[in-house]
Amino acid sequence: MSEETVEQIRRVYDMFNRRDWDAFRRVMDRDIAVESRLVQMEGGYRGYDGLRRWWDQVFETMPDYRIEVRELREVGDIVLVQARGLGHGASSGTPVVDPFWQAIEMKDGRCTWWRNCSSESEALTAIAERSGSG
Q1: Which CATH number fits domain 3-131: 3.40.50.2020, 3.40.50.360, 3.10.450.50, 1.20.1260.10?
Q2: Is the separation of the CB atoms in 33 and 129 below 8 Å?
Q3: How many angstroms separate the CA atoms of 81 and 83, rounded?
């Protein structure tokens, strides 16, 4: 994985944590596919409109939600991220500690796809499926 890719992904998390929607959107592909852990219920999110809907839902649920990156590593052409989300429920104030794994595909400096997963093995399966080897 190139150092440039690692730094770009770290910047994307920083944009998210700063709530800088405009900068965040600019590093996403026009046809971005976002697959949250609730994808079966939500149907996933596509394009800038879907991305914005995802963004708004995250911060409506937990206005102070932020992500801490624990590890980044390359698996083929996809980056695997171990992270945890931290925040508080909007209506309850309940603290949330949300460990997760994320598979991220970058092409030509833009994020084209990501899937949030509950475990490393789930993320590796998603990567294998995305890469056509699973």
Answers
A1: 3.10.450.50
A2: no
A3: 6
10 Å Cβ neighbour count for 28? 18
Residue 19 has pLDDT above 60, yes or no: yes
Please tell me the distance from the alpha carbon of residue 34 to that of residue 42, in angstroms, as a whole number. 11
pLDDT at 1: 58
By CB atoms closer than 10 A (0-12, 13-18, 19+), residue 84 is middle
Residue 43: pLDDT band (50, 70, 90) is low
Looking at residue 40, its pLDDT comes to 52
